[in-house]
Amino acid sequence: xxxxxxxxxxxxxxxxxxxxxxxxxxxxxxxxxxxxxxxxxxxxxxxxxxxxxxxxxxxxxxxxxxxxxxxxxxxxxxxxxxxxxxxxxxxxxxxxxxxxxxxxxxxxxxxxxxxxxxxxxxxxxxxxxxxxxxxxxxxxxxxxxxxxxxxxxxxxxxxxxxxxxxxxxxxxxxxxxxxxxxxxxxxxxxxxxxxxxxxxxxxxxxxxxxxxxxxxxxxxxxxxxxxxxxxxxxxxxxxxxxxxxxxxxxxxxxxxxxxxxxxxxxxxxxxxxxxxxxxxxxxxxxxxxxxxxxxxxxxxxxxxxxxxxxxxxxxxxxxxxxxxxxxxxxxxxxxxxxxxxxxxxxxxxxxxxxxxxxxxxxxxxxxxxxxxxxxxxxxxxxxxxxxxxxxxxxxxxxxxxxxxxxxxxxxxxxx
Length: 415
Fold this sequence. Notes:
Elements: H1 2-17, E1 28-30, E2 36-38, E3 59-65, E4 70-74, E5 78-88, E6 92-97, E7 100-101, E8 107-111, E9 116-122, E10 129-137, E11 140-143, E12 148-153, E13 161-162, E14 174-175, E15 185-187, E16 191-198, E17 205-209, E18 215-217, E19 230-233, E20 249-254, E21 267-271, E22 274-278, E23 289-294, H2 310-318, E24 322-327, E25 340-347, E26 360-362, E27 368-369, E28 375-376, E29 380-383, E30 391-394, H3 395-402
Parallel strand pairs: 4-12
Antiparallel strand pairs: 1-2, 3-5, 5-9, 6-7, 6-10, 8-9, 10-11, 10-12, 13-14, 15-26, 16-25, 17-18, 17-19, 19-24, 20-23, 20-25, 21-22, 21-24, 27-28, 29-30
């Protein structure tokens, strides 16, 4: 008996605490004559009830309670904000962060029937910023001022830096890359993943490089002279958006050892009008030899021999145009190896090979996406102005500037 009573009481409490997620179009408004219509018809300027009762006693939104101007939380704690308004019908409360629509999965928000809006976020370092509340009903809207300034404590690094997930050694700090458009970043909570492919796979391409940046496709690798360097030209899965590969490794088995005085690079990466080279210092006499290259800035340099910083490496990883691996000849001719090449990447799924340590996750402004803001969001196009990688601007802006005025939106299709 007591157990049944406890179940009834528990169920009642859970139901009372649950948030009603029914879409507004399914919520009824009952006219005076008893006929129900959708609550979305209330005060919309058209009489949907025969007695026009859905258009009576209408009132625009007004503010009753604003969220606090300042909130201080620690990493992992919840930030709870309340914004209460009144009006007929009751206003819908929406939230924005730094002026952009709030779409972050770490936050939950809802509006109660009386016009009370609530926001609850489990805060990360990149969630620091300005949070604003907005009231809206069919008769008007209010942008509540002032906004709430949220600060998040818990970082051992300074502004514009983050600490990698590295259990060994003292804490270190890396500068935020974030495509040059944000200073809010943290170590991403991602797992390692590998791109794997045999060097003699049918999708593999081949190319030659003149040592200055010019790459030429090679189709007849069987008759290619061994006096000229030939490269495996890695296909799509190893190139383009690889910012999540930072700190990971590229591993493969070279067909031959390096001879003394051999200065031909083992690996070449090209992207954003930059060419980075890696030349192994390992002069082993065994053949074949294992090559393991970590994708960090001190392992690469420019063609003129100068070193690079994290910014330049991340720019190339953000969009790799070409990734070339040296092809060593065997027995006087080139023959693709059956060995595999493995390149680290990152994913949200645990594949059983551990977590990433140095991949960053940035708070991106509107129009940017990707862990490092390296990609343009849908509806935006990259324009090379401002930061080294340019800005992501709306297509409308792009059309107004570059498309002839005679081209209408109906006939213009942006690819």
